């Protein structure tokens, strides 16, 4: 079955620690995205990547970092510099330029930092 | 700035029809998406409109008027499983996807 996996589903961390969220897809999509979702707000784009070894900042990239060493994988690191990291994080992929095509989403990771 | 407006919450009765509106002000327009998101889960694609008019897909239909900056999602024969949030997203002139905050739909028996 083709799809996107994110792990873990729930993640708890202490303030001051970096944490890496996993995202893997086997849809053979070129483009991948990371979003953050907070209650009462729309999805906000953190980073996106259109091809391997290249990625671009989204609207709220501060305090986050990514890598795209393989087409299938796009991990997100939430660093201690992110002031309010507790949120629901969604990874997505699409078969083309980011706004023009349907995006397929992973199940999400709910991160809680205390 | 770019803005998408949707009602925060709506309530409807099982078996009825509900219309969820979305109005937008964006720099350019290259299409509008509707996604469904059940609580705690991933959004899933419902529809994509780029031309004016109504697109029907089973119990769900989506309408677009580009001149009015307006779209709606129409859900017929509501079922309890339709309880979810419905997200409107607009593609602007730079092919950036601008997301609305979503409309939480509550279905009552």
Strand content of chain A: over 45%
Categorize the overall geometry of chain B: globular
Largest sheet of chain A: 7 strands, mixed
Query: Roughly what percent helix of chain A?
Result: under 10%
Number of helices of chain A: 0
Give me the count of strands of chain A.
11
- The shape of chain A is globular
What is the terminal-to-terminal distance of chain A? 36 Å
Task: Report the total helices of chain B.
Answer: 0
CA radius of gyration of chain B:
13 Å
Salient structural properties:
heterodimer, A: 114 residues, mainly beta, seven-stranded mixed beta sheet, four-stranded antiparallel beta sheet, 0% helix, B: 109 residues, six-stranded mixed beta sheet, five-stranded antiparallel beta sheet, globular
Report on the structure:
The complex is a heterodimer of chains A (114) and B (109). With 114 residues, chain A is mainly β. In chain A, strands 2, 4, 5, 6, 9, 10 and 11 form a 7-stranded mixed β-sheet that branches. A 4-stranded antiparallel β-sheet of chain A has the order 1-3-8-7, with no helix packed on it. Chain A has strands spanning 4-7, 10-13, 19-25, 31-37, 44-51, 54-57, 64-66, 76-78, 87-94, 104-105, 109-113. In chain A, a hairpin with a 6-residue loop joins strand 4 and strand 5. Chain B is mainly β and 109 residues long. Helix content of chain B is 0%, strand content 57%. Chain B is built from no helices and 11 strands. Chain B has strands spanning 3-5, 9-13, 18-25, 32-37, 44-49, 53-57, 60-65, 70-75, 84-91, 97-99, 103-108. In chain B, strands 2, 4, 5, 9, 10 and 11 form a 6-stranded mixed β-sheet that branches. Chain B has a 5-stranded antiparallel β-sheet with strand order 1-3-8-7-6, with no helix packed on it. In chain B, a hairpin with a 4-residue loop joins strand 7 (60-65) and strand 8 (70-75). Chain B is globular and about 40 Å long. The mean pLDDT of chain B is 95.
């Amino acid at each position: 079955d083709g799809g996107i996996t994110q792990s873990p589903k729930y993640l708890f961390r202490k303030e001051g620690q970096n944490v890496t969220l996993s995202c893997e897809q086997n849809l053979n999509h070129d483009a991948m995205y990371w979003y953050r979702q907070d209650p009462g707000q729309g999805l906000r784009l953190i980073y996106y990547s259109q091809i391997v070894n290249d990625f671009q900042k989204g609207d709220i990239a501060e305090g986050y970092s990514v890598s795209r060493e393989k087409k299938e994988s796009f991990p997100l690191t939430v660093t201690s510099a992110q002031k309010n990291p507790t949120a629901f994080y969604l990874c997505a992929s699409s078969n083309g330029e980011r706004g023009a095509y349907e995006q397929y989403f992973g199940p999400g990771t709910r991160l809680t930092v205390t | 700035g770019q803005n998408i407006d949707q009602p925060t919450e709506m309530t409807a009765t099982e078996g009825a029809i509900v219309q969820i509106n979305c109005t937008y002000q964006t720099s350019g327009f290259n299409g509008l998406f509707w996604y469904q998101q059940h609580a705690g889960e991933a959004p899933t694609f419902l529809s994509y409109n780029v031309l004016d008019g109504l697109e029907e897909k089973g119990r769900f239909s989506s309408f677009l008027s580009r001149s009015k900056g307006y779209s709606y999602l129409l859900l017929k024969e509501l079922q309890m499983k339709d309880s979810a949030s419905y997200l409107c997203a607009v593609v602007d002139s730079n092919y950036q996807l601008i997301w609305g905050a979503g409309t939480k739909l509550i279905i009552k028996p």
